[in-house]
Amino acid sequence: MKSIIRLISLFFILVLAQGSCIKETPRPPAEIGLEEVNLGCDSTKYADWETSEYILPFPVGKAYAIGLSHCSGSYHGIGLPDQFAIDFNMDIGTKIIASRAGEVIFVEESGYDGEFPNNKVVIQHADGTYLQYMHLTHNGAAVEVGQRINKGQLIAYSGSTGLAGYPHLHFVATVNDSWEYPYTSFPTTFSNTRANGLSLRQGERYKALPY
User: Fold this and answer.
1) Across the strands, what pairs with 134?
2) How many Å apart are CA 131 and CA 171, to the nearest integer?
3) In the list 105, 155, 181, 205, which could disulfide-bond 65, CB 3.0-4.6 Å?
4) What per-residue confidence (pLDDT) applies to 6?
5) pTM
6) Each residue of 118-138: b (16+ CB within 10 Å) or e?
7) What is the CA radius of gyration of the chain?
8) Distance in angstroms (rounded) separating the CA atoms of residues 61 and 2
């Protein structure tokens, strides 16, 4: 009888010991949802991308990679004027279209690539907000101040002026009464590309689809 009790006790000791060594198995990356990946800016509310008023700032069928995006460090760091700016990596002379309809309020195109000033086109929308398209090439504006612009209309050609460092389009939406630096930027999503619930992700490539 004592031997049976000892065997039963030993059995329970082994079971308890095994249970204490059990660890949670890590989930493979494929099972981790995008909402758990650190995309976009923490504690920021993003507009529904599928109904966004904004389209990608280049013609349908074209695709470009993203350099810096929202809260991605450097000049796009949290709390900086360009916190919500997006850099589209583009060769000099690439066509840029209006992401949203509005009126041109500022044009600078006298700079040469690799030099100052920073060439740009600024468009104000009906709600008072602005979109700024920067680092344009020399004489790279295709619009004039006071001109009304439709969504998708050609407005400029990309370049590498100002503090560009390399050829790309610096795209930033800014709030009412704030288009001169240091402005206040806000987040944008885009309706004519693949899912971008937390806007465009740094290092990825996005294609402009019909809208």
Assistant:
1) 120, 170
2) 7
3) 205
4) 54
5) 0.82
6) bbbbbbbbeeebbbbbbbbbe
7) 25
8) 82
Which tokens go with 13? 């000791």
- DSSP-derived 3-state class of residue 3: helix
Closest CA to 201 of 210, 190, 186, 211: 190
**What residue has token string 């919500």?**
84
CB 151 within 8 A of CB 162: no
The SS3 of residue 39 is coil
Gap between the Cα atoms of 133 and 70, Å rounded: 16
In the chain, which residues have pLDDT < 70?
A: 1-38
Q: Please report the beta strands in the chain, taking only residues with DSSP state E, as ranges in sequence order.
A: 63-65, 86-89, 95-97, 102-108, 120-124, 130-134, 136-141, 148-149, 154-158, 168-174, 205-207
**Are β-strands 154-158 and 136-141 bridged in parallel, bridged antiparallel, or unpaired?**
antiparallel
Kindly give, in sequence order, each residue whose CB lies less than 8 Å from that of residue 159, ignoring residues fewer than 6 positions away: 92, 93, 113, 119, 135, 136, 137, 138, 140, 167
CA–centroid distance for 178 within its chain = 20
Q: What is the DSSP string of 148-170?
A: EE-TT-EEEEE---SS-SSSEEE
Q: Model confidence over 53-103: pLDDT tens digits?
A: 999 999 999 999 999 999 998 999 999 999 999 999 999 999 999 999 999
- DSSP annotation of 11 reads H
Q: Can you give the pLDDT at residue 88?
A: 98
74: tokens are 């450097």
Give the C-alpha separation, 205 to 56, whole Å: 12
Tell how strand 102-108 and strand 120-124 pair up: antiparallel
**Which residue type does 13 have?**
I
Q: What is the pLDDT of residue 42?
A: 85
